[in-house]
């Protein structure tokens, strides 16, 4: 049986739902610490039946925040790593932008950007500083998740379960609205979710996967 595409407006806010899924996954990776914002976002998606997901986000989010308050060293390293990543990406963009400007303006001032000190900073020092610090941050986070005490591992498992529920709802609504998987791609720092396929693997400055939901048509079920 072929599914007829629903006419008119979408039944839910897909952009907001996907953004919420991404941010819950970031919470699992200790990248954000504002569970209340996630609750507000989720309530605005238009998705129904979110009582269990909201309960998990509120409970486990608050628990993670309280745990991270005690991990001041880790939080400091996460902030520094984020700044280094932004600087490294900005440096690369400046280099590419300068190439274009030199081509069209012929201004010699842009050649300063390609001097040895700038190239060393943008292409070597900042990216490597970020990668080294990010490695230690991820090692610390994994160690924290594996601790039998402290509750981080349990928080991670419950948040994964809540996010899996949202991914399932995304697929359910997408099927009803006739959405294509490629239009619903999102970033994730974990690949332990079901019903998604990997589209792109992590790269040098992007330690995340790009995935898309697996939407099966009625005729294949």
Structural features, described:
The structure is a single chain. With 221 residues, the chain is mainly α. It has helices at 14-28, 35-43, 51-70, 72-105, 116-146, 152-177; strands at residues 186-188, 196-200, 209-213. The protein has a three-stranded antiparallel beta sheet. Mean pLDDT is 82; it is low at 1-7.
Helix content estimate: 55-70%
Count of strand segments: 3
Number of H/I helices:
6
Query: SSE order, as H and E?
Result: HHHHHHEEE
Q: Per the principal axes of the C-alpha atoms, what is the gross shape? A: globular
Oligomerization: single chain
Provide a concise account of the structure shown.
The chain is built from six helices and three strands, in the order H-H-H-H-H-H-E-E-E.
Topology:
Elements: H1 14-28, H2 35-43, H3 51-70, H4 72-105, H5 116-146, H6 152-177, E1 186-188, E2 196-200, E3 209-213
Antiparallel strand pairs: 1-3, 2-3
Helix pairs in contact: 1-2, 1-6, 2-3, 3-6, 4-5
